[in-house]
Specification:
Layout lengths: L4 H14 L9 H8 L3 H13 L3 E4 L5 E4 L8 H8 L25 H17 L4 H4 L3 H15 L3
Antiparallel strand pairs: 1-2
Helix pairs in contact: 1-2, 1-3, 1-4, 2-3
Length: about 150
Amino acid sequence: MKISAQEEYGLRCLVQLALLKEGETLTLTQIAEREGISVANAGKLMWLLSKAGFVKATRGTKGGYCLARPASEIKLSEVIKVLEEKGIENHCENFTGVLDICVHKEDCGIRSVIVGLHEIIRNVLSQITLAELIAPEKMVDQKFHQIQRIHRIF
């Protein structure tokens, strides 16, 4: 399964905010610079994340963005669900063929596999918090492998 640029950069923006100390904020320009994305793209991501209740914005000269709730309470599955451009629920409607709709909409064995894989991924992501992503990469890798062993996946 492929994670979209929007999903990846949305997570990266949240990681930047999770690294802040209590009371600190980042401006849109700072977030964009730290992640190497345009201010417009950062603005779109922060709007989506704000609308979903992950971040809050403060206006003014000392304003900026910060997390709306503790990083330890933000599950990656929640974030991905907000940021995914084409939800798995509409898999058949997001058909990329020459027709408007998939010809196998009524009976499709492939759909079961695709939906099942997405469910496995969603379950794994529901066990990882934003707070865990700010740990050193080795620790994040250990956490991921622990989840793999427990659920016997991949």
